[in-house]
Design goal:
Helix content: 55-70%
Largest sheet: none
Number of strands: 0
Shape: elongated
Strand content: under 5%
Distance between the termini: 96 Å
Order of helices and strands: HH
Number of helices: 2
């Protein structure tokens, strides 16, 4: 069997294809049913990118979480201001 020799003296380490700006390549494990669900949604919508759909869902979740925190903080601040006003009177 003939083997081919490769010369790596001028080779550079790193990704072959660079990620677009604002994107980071990660490796995560998703349950098969979750991944298939996103793929089906994209396919039903006529095509697209299931990874973008996952990003959109995660972004929406983070925004909603922030709103819950904001609501809680506002409630606490109102209670504290009301308590301070009563003490001052």
């Amino acid at each position: 069997m003939k083997t081919k020799e490769y010369d790596f003296t001028n080779a550079k380490r790193g990704a072959i294809v660079k990620s677009p700006k604002g994107k980071t390549l990660v490796s995560i494990r998703l349950d098969n049913d979750i991944l298939e669900g996103f793929r089906e949604q994209v396919h039903s919508a006529g095509g697209g990118d299931y990874e973008s759909l996952i990003n959109e869902v995660l972004r929406r979740h983070l925004r909603e979480q922030g709103r819950g925190l904001e609501k809680t903080l506002r409630k606490i601040i109102r209670e504290e201001l009301s308590s301070m006003a009563k003490r001052a009177a």
